[in-house]
Amino acid sequence: MRQIALITRDAHSALLDLKKLVDSAAERIRAAELQSVGAALGSPRTDDPLRTLRMAAETLRSSDFEAAVSQARAKTEYAVSCCFTATRK
Fold first, then answer.
1. What share of the chain is helix, strand, coil (3-state, %, to 5)?
2. How far is CA 81 from CA 3, 16, 68, 74, in A?
3. Is residue 11 within 8 Å of residue 82, measured between CB atoms?
4. Cα angle value 10/16/21 (rounded, 5°)
5. Please, are residues 81 and 20 in contact by the beta-carbon 8 Å criterion?
6. Does residue 1 carry a pLDDT above 90?
7. Cα–Cα separations (whole angstroms), residue 30 to 18, 37, 49, 70, 76
8. How many Å apart are CA 41 and CA 89, to the nearest integer?
9. Is a pLDDT exceeding 90 seen at residue 47?
10. How far is the C-alpha of 68 from the C-alpha of 78, rounded, in Å?
11. Could you tell me which residues come within 8 angstroms of residue 1 by beta carbon, excluding any fewer than 6 positions away?
12. Global pTM?
């Protein structure tokens, strides 16, 4: 069971890495939303919402994001497999 705890912790860590990238993209999209609202209300443009949206999209298209998704998926599936095997003994 100790081994399963370590494997599960590793899966959790991989998900946290993925979450950091998702949170970064979400923050950029939120910033673009606020920039767009400001522009719609006639506030002087200090930031470009399109540029901010592109940065969020780049995060989600990046090889780092793809690697984080793959790692999270693989480690979670491995944890499930180990737990399933352990409970069948």
1. 85, 0, 15
2. 12, 20, 20, 10
3. no
4. 135
5. no
6. no
7. 18, 11, 10, 26, 29
8. 64
9. no
10. 15
11. 86
12. 0.84
Task: Assign 72 a pLDDT band (cuts: 50, 70, 90).
Answer: very high
* Distant-in-sequence, close-in-space partners of 78: CB < 8 Å, separation ≥ 6: 7, 11
CB-based contact 82:4 (threshold 8 Å)? yes
Rounded to whole angstroms, the Cα distance separating 64 from 41 reads: 36
Please report, for the chain, the start and end positions of each structural domain, with discontinuous segments joined by +: 2-87
- Say if residues 72 and 17 touch (Cβ distance below 8 Å): yes
